Amino acid sequence: MKNKRRSPFAAALVIVAGLIISGGSYAAANAVVKHSNTSQAVTQSQLEEGKQLFLANCASCHGKNGVGTSAAPTLIGVGAASADFQVSSGRMPAQADGPQMQVKPVQFTREQIDAIAAYVGSLGTGPAIPSADMTAANGDAVRGGELFRINCAMCHNAVGAGGALTEGKYAPALKNIPNTRIYEAMLTGPQNMPVFNDANITPTDKKDIITYLKYLDENPSAGGYELAGLGPVAEGLFIWIIGLGLIIGFTVWLGAKSN
To answer: What is the CATH number of the domain that holds 83?
Structure first.
């Protein structure tokens, strides 16, 4: 029986076919990039728009390719969630240097913010914008309150009223903040806030915390006037100045009347 020998070109043809298939798959994957944890699809045109917006509004501080400068940190690997948080809250583009960036009116449309976030997300692997399901306030508010008091209350106050930090910095109040922005803050750790990734606060934990904060938004204090929810220091000061002052005044009035 005559031995069948493979053509010397067979291996080369297999390699070429493999390169064509893998190259085509890579090109198709780049045409529409799917971010993890989000239902948003990023198109090439959106990336181009985001790049142009970035060059016009962000590159002067963060560098042409987001590598950072002496004026601002690198954006390589911060993810689309970080860019969405900063731009959608009006903190970026920044107007002036300071202890931390201030919330101000948003300068871009929702479509432009999505484009900028998509471009920043393409600069490296980082947290994606969470989906609506992940940020829905349908978790456990009681458990969320416990998690919030353990991880967040030391800066933001037990009811999210905010508080002062060192060197002119502060933890902002968390009243009526959009769900997605709360999730992104925990995920990316903006400003002075630590990063709470999924290893130390799981997505379920984050949802419970959001549910707790939304409960606070919808349910004002049942105990009467809450003095802005600033805690025992404000309440004690109120008692000393107002309460004790009324007692002293009433005592003086009684003494004067008896005389």
So the answer is: 1.10.760.10
pLDDT, one tens digit per residue, over 100-147 is 888 999 999 999 999 999 999 999 999 999 999 999 999 999 999 999
Q: How, if at all, do strands 41-43 and 32-34 pair?
A: antiparallel
pLDDT band at 158 (very low <50, low <70, confident <90, very high): confident
Q: Are 135 and 179 in contact (CB under 8 A)?
A: yes
Reading the block at residue 58, the tokens are: 């962000």
Average pLDDT over residues 90-107: 88
Residue 206 located in a structural domain: yes
Q: Are residues 109 and 139 in the same domain?
A: no
pLDDT at 13 over 80: no
How far out from the chain centre does Cα 38 lie? 14
Last residue of a domain, one of 85, 103, 122: 122
Task: Locate the DSSP E strands across 96-222.
Answer: 163-164, 170-171
Range of the domain at 97: 36-122
Which residues are CB-neighbours of 207 under 8 A, at least 6 positions away? Answer: 134, 135, 136, 137, 138, 139, 144
Phi, psi angles (nearest 5°) of residue 170: -155, 155
Please report whether residue 17 resides in a domain: no
Phi and psi (nearest 5°) for 43?
Answer: -95, 165
Task: Look at the chain and report how many structural domains it folds into.
Answer: 2
Q: What is the pTM of this model?
A: 0.72
Residue 200 has which token pair? 């130390």
Rounded to the nearest integer, the mean pLDDT of the chain is: 84
Looking at 122, 153, 179, the residue that finishes a domain is 122
Q: Which two tokens stand for residue 155?
A: 């800066």
CA 161 vs CA 28, 223, 226: distances in Å: 48, 17, 11
